[in-house]
Amino acid sequence: MIIATPTFVLDLSSLGAGNDQGFSYFKENDAPSALAALVNLDSYFDSEGPFDGIIAFSQSVGLAGTWLVHRQRRQLPSVRCGVFFSGAATALDPDILHDGRMVPLPSDRVGQVIDTPTAHIYGSGDSYAAAAKEFSGICNSAVRSMYIHPGRHEVPGSGSGSSTKDVVHLSVNAIRRTISLSTE
After folding, report:
1. What pairs with residue 146 in β-bridges?
2. DSSP state of 139
3. Which residues share a beta bridge with 4?
4. pTM for the whole thing?
């Protein structure tokens, strides 16, 4: 679980959120800010962990994915599973991020580099659906669960555009499969 205090205001106008204000863990397209978020997450895990899983929504999906790759490459303990809602960004290459540049890890170039069991849940009408799909592509398909609901940039449930019983049930099934795979 990411437990942190987001500090940067996020522009939600492209999501049709009206005057709603959101926050982010780092400034978009700002490598020092993204690296600081990665280091903070890593430090938090080391001091407060271990944790069984990580749950992320929107921009934090890319941060969590970058962190998973960072830990895996260094053969450091991580989490047993990840649940990702409405991914707005794929993971960055953590080694290049340490050099001050933000370089995404596209699945067609790096393959399935995250071995942790994962669930990917996003809406077919999400303006970030391509990013969510790209991120899911770098996760091991043998331990990856996906559910694409009919909604937008949201977590399915009460009050969302994808609140029907079937949508919520199928989202929960993807998460249950991921948890089950993490205990095998």
Report:
1. 120
2. B
3. none
4. 0.83
The 81-85 sheet, strands edge to edge: 53-57, 81-85, 118-123, 144-149
Integer Cα distance of 76 and 129 in angstroms: 30
Task: Give 3-state DSSP helix, strand, coil % of the chain, rounded to 5.
Answer: 40, 15, 40
Residue 159 CB-density burial (10 A; 0-12 exposed, 13-18 middle, 19+ buried): exposed
Token pair recorded at residue 16: 């049709």
pLDDT in tens, 135-146: 999 999 999 999
Q: pLDDT for 90-125, tens place per residue?
A: 999 999 999 999 999 988 899 999 999 999 999 999
User: The dihedral of CA 177, 58, 147, 165: what is its sign?
Assistant: positive
